Amino acid sequence: MIKKRRSSAWYGKHDKDGFIHRSWMKNQGFPDHAFDGRPVIGICNTWSELTPCNSGLRDLAEGVKRGVWEAGGFPVEFPVMSLGETQMKPTAMLFRNLLAMDVEESIRAYGIDGVVLLGGCDKTTPGQLMGAASVDLPTIVVSSGPMLNGKWKGKDIGSGTDVWKFSEAVRAGEMTLQDFMNAESGMSRSKGVCMTMGTASTMASVVEAMGMSLPTNAALPAVDSRRMALAHLTGKRIVEMVDEDIKPSDIMTREAFENAILANAAVGGSTNAVVHLLAMAGRVGVDLALDDFELGSEIPLLVNCMPSGKYLMEDFCYAGGMPVVLSKLAKHGHLRSTKTVLGGDIHAYADGAECYNDDVIQSFDSPVKPAAGLRVLRGNLAPRGAIIKPSAASDHLLEHEGEAYVFDSIEDMKANIDRDDLPVTADSILVLKGCGPKGYPGMPEVGNMPIPRRLITQGIKDMIRISDARMSGTAFGTVILHVSPEAQAGGPLALVKTGDRIRVSTSTGALELLISDTEMDARRASWQPDEPHYTRGYAKMYVDHVLQADKGADLDFLVGKDTRLVTRESH
Ligand SMILES: CC[C@@](C)(O)[C@@H](O)C(=O)O
């Protein structure tokens, strides 16, 4: 017998409970020595054919198992809910916290000592980490990895980013519907997540910057054999980590979250990282606030990937990937010291990293864009904040005052956006209500509303859009998101009327509805929330308990952790 482990409370007992735990597991052909006290490693898998981004995780699980066996551990794979943002209605975000509950309770209830999280699609990474952090066993992430570069008509095309471009081109009459449909197959040529710097690759990048995965995990393409090797090495490492007792709470420190914010700015990462990092921080008890994201605002955009730049994740990988970004951040004093899954400091991920393509990963002195990180906006329209991604926005709209055109719901927007008589100009500000966590529900990626047809046919490509929704990490435009409190929770967004003037200043961080306080109070007095869409089940629980976007949209009762061992047996 090696050292007494958590799993020994299942497999090390010599009574009827130990018999039950071991004997039933042996029906899968595991030999006696699998239960000799070696570390039991749970492989928490979000593989699903309905989550195409994660469809390669079955293979990667086998890679992790090889490494676990090699290091003297006992690997056991288990499924958890899988969330495919491209497939789920109303949005996978509605279920991120449900996945987190599934992960948390699975880890807690089973006899495992350490966990490898296999995720990829946007919500699977944060959902798994939130759940794992609330139990706090040694944990490492292995991501799906991005798809190969999209290819169509001899050009590279990027997941999401080119969907938005193509669909606007069809609406503007610049692309045929047949061409639009033909591009589908070229865009998704292999297993893996979006190969733009969408939310999936953003989350993998920030997780690497936090030290929660092995180095190079974020950018290796899903089908690159080196990803299988990385899974193998992760399996080996998690066994050692159990012995070293390195837990998420040792790694996911305040400094690690700051590194995530800084890295997110440098890679031009998704706005969705904000709600996910806030929710993850809430689980480990790190006091991260929306304003902390301003930390990244002066960091230049180094990674020239869509949607803020022009390349794709495969190019980013071949240019050196995250270790290069971390080394550039370190060189300019923007990488905090913090422990990683390897047991050393995050600076070790950066040491010796070489950049193989200076156009794909640019320098601090000559970046893709200066001061590219997310900005937090506040004012009487968003008392608890809103965010904008300047690197994906139009410079001329970053300081702007204009007249609001309001859509009261997503249905209203869809029914009217293409009306030929829609009273909007390029200076108008489109406002969409009812798309926050409680409103839709689930805070979908609809904030980057299409440009009204009458403007797009005049060649207008961007205008200010404001909502309580999120937007795809692959999207672009001058889009103000995550307005808190949301309309459905009675935030001032609910009170905006068509014709009101709104002022946006990205430089001073202001978002103001230019009406008097008296007028605001009068409108509030007659405001009623919409009837809830769901009156039972998980969605009802979600709506009753979800926190606002500025707090990460976790459920109020899931914040924090409980690391106690469950002592009561099932028989
Ligand atoms: C279409 C792109 C998606 C589904 O990945 C999106 O969720 C993102 O934020 O990147």
What does this protein structure show overall?
The chain has 571 residues and is an alpha/beta fold. It folds into two domains: 245 residues, Rossmann fold (3-Layer(aba) Sandwich); 159 residues, Glucose Oxidase, domain 1. Helix content is 33%, strand content 12%. The strands form four sheets. A six-stranded mixed beta sheet has the order 12-11-10-9-13-14. α3 packs across α9 and α5 runs parallel beside α12. It starts with 7 loop residues before the first helix and ends in a 26-residue tail after the last helix. The site of 2,3-dihydroxy-valerianic acid has 14 residues, from α8.
Low-confidence stretches: none
> Could you tell me the number of beta strands?
14
Q: Strand fraction band?
A: 5-15%
Question: What is the domain total for the residues?
Answer: 2
Radius of gyration: 24 Å
Overall body shape: globular
Q: What is the C-level CATH assignment of the largest domain?
A: Alpha Beta
- Ligands (ions, cofactors included): 2,3-dihydroxy-valerianic acid
Termini distance? 25 Å
Oligomeric grouping of the chains:
single chain
Q: Please work out how many helical segments DSSP would assign.
A: 19
CATH architecture of the largest domain: 3-Layer(aba) Sandwich
- The level of helicity is 25-40%
User: Which fold name is given in CATH as the topology of the largest domain?
Assistant: Rossmann fold
Class by helix and strand content?
A: alpha/beta
Mean pLDDT: 97
Major sheet: arrangement of strands = 12-11-10-9-13-14
Largest sheet: 6 strands, mixed
Protein name: Dihydroxy-acid dehydratase
Family: Belongs to the IlvD/Edd family.
EC number: 4.2.1.9
Keywords: Iron, Iron-sulfur, Lyase, Metal-binding
